[in-house]
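Subject: Protein entry, chain in single-letter code together with its fold tokens

Area: Proteins and the way their chains fold up in space.

Attached in line: The record itself begins immediately under this heading.
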Amino acid sequence: MGNHVKESLTLSPYLLWFLLHGTQVGIAMLSFQRYIITGAEQDSWVSLLLVGISMHFITWIMFFVLKNANEGDVISLHQQLFGKWLGKCLTLGFYGYILLFLITEIRLYVEVLHVWVFPNTKIWIFSLMILMICIYLVSGGLRVVAGVCFFCIIIPSLLLLSLSVPLKYAHWTNFLPLFNHQFNDYAESAFHSLTLFSGVEFLLLLYPFIKNNEKSQKWAHISNVHTTILYLFITLVSFSYFNIQQLEHTIWPTLILSKIIQLPFLERFDSIYVYNWFLIIVARCCVPLWAGTRILRKTFGFKARPSLWITSTIVFICLIPLKGQKIIEKLDFLLSVTGGILLYGYIPFLFILILIINFFKKKHMVKIKGKH
């Protein structure tokens, strides 16, 4: 694999941890508990843990696939395996997934702002505000995006210490009985856990920009461990405080947990959560926005700034008509399905295809050596 990225544009390997983790953690952290209980109920933490473990396998596959790409990214890999035109079509399919990722994340956070803080402000204003900030940051390049991911993970992570307060009221019997569900139940909960780990797939475009990229795999695995522990901790705290019936009727359980905290100088601690989550959303949106910009640049030869504005404009236009809780839930479901197909279907397919091609190449080389 040849790296065609200038040395001055590459990042230290450890920053891959922040780039991937910052893309995996988003607005779903405020509401995922009510979705993953569908199926395995109080045992759904098992499904979440298994999905987190499976991400290590998917990460290993992606590193193997990218090592066999001419330029180290999925764009060059598509043209290498499928030819110019079909390769471009598949890359545009990935671009469509990036747009869906951005639309879903921004719309979900805007809904939180609209319900909890600014009920009279129009949705498109919030959407435009988030996009403009992301455009400003992405225009600075991947180094700026990596810096944003670093600070947007460290600062809001301090809020997670506040979740120790609900543990004072924990009912550990909520976890009983243990392991009393069927395989289908665990599988259903696992499906609803997929969106929690979506974001690792952007490694398919980030890989060439990491120094010593072939040896940076450990940082991607550390990111997966970090994400899994984070979601598992929140799940255990939530399940110890809420019972299953309460979680079914609670839209944002993490925000409800934050309302328990009372300080003499602050009436609503949950507002701190909502405002600080803006930092997390920016990090989660900047990486896919950068990725979409890069796809347009390499696929159609556009310059960086027009590519950035085209991607942002498409996202904004798509956000305007999306209104109502049912539309939002359908959007989240669509992202889970497409993300699941990409991670557990398409990426393993590329892996198997490369294995087959390499096998026949070696066989052909052996025949040539045999003739000589």
Q: What stands out?
A: The longest helix spans residues 325-371. The two ends are 28 Å apart (CA to CA).
